[in-house]
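FORM 7B: Structural annotation worksheet

SECTION A. Query
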Amino acid sequence: MSPEQTKATSPRPALSPKRREQNRREFIRTSILGIGVLGATLAGLLPLAGQANARLRPPGAIKDRLQEQEFLAACIKCGQCVQVCPVEAIRLADLTDGVGVGTPFIQARDQACDFSCDGLQCVLACPTGALTHDINYPSQARMGLARLARPESCLAVRGQGFRGQARGADFSGLLRYEAVNRWLPIPVADHPYDLELCDLCLRQCPIEIRLAQCAAGTPPSGDANQCPPRSAIRLGAQAGGGALPLVLDGCVGCGVCEMICPVDPAAIVIDIDRVADAAQVG
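SECTION B. Predicted structure
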């Protein structure tokens, strides 16, 4: 046996107690680091599995759990939909949203989608179809479904009117008012109301506005295809006075009713896990 072979087959020298203790500490440190990384990963994934990070998505995004995951997989987080929204309703999720970081969402109470663009610019801008190109008009969107969550605070239910700025002087939300400027959204704070009976959820509903325009023979952009087939909301009379907002199957869940509601918290909200086609509305 050569000296080299003898060296190769010789038993490894025993580690000193100090070296064994060092190895043990490195193993524990590496294990803790691995567990931490795994935990952080699960912390990001578990909210997705439980829909804890579900948000109101722009028009064209999908609604049930499976399709939400499909949406998250298809969205490349390019932000094109954010860039083209005329009322800046679309935001991108931040790090607190786990694996959904960078995906677009709408915080309706702060700034709803009012379909100012008519042509669904966010859908047209989406390069991957995460906002499906199968819809062409606002009435085809299914973002969510409005719900009268707090009837006891609804001014219409209580038979009360409203006077002043719907969300106060400091509210920065925008809406497009046909009587002010057809194409330029303005701050809600710049458009005070004086209503004997509050009907803001109905009055500012983009679907109801379109229906009124179509009934008058002036559909948006002169395009009859822009005319919604069904109403989204109406006020039902109550025996004891006042009126009850009734959500109808033409509701697309844009969130304008939630944004414009003058009471705080809003009496009417958007359910993001329901759409008109699959829900018992009313």
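SECTION C. Observations
Residues 17-49 form the longest helix (33 residues). The mean pLDDT is 86.

SECTION D. Sign-off
Analyst initials: ____
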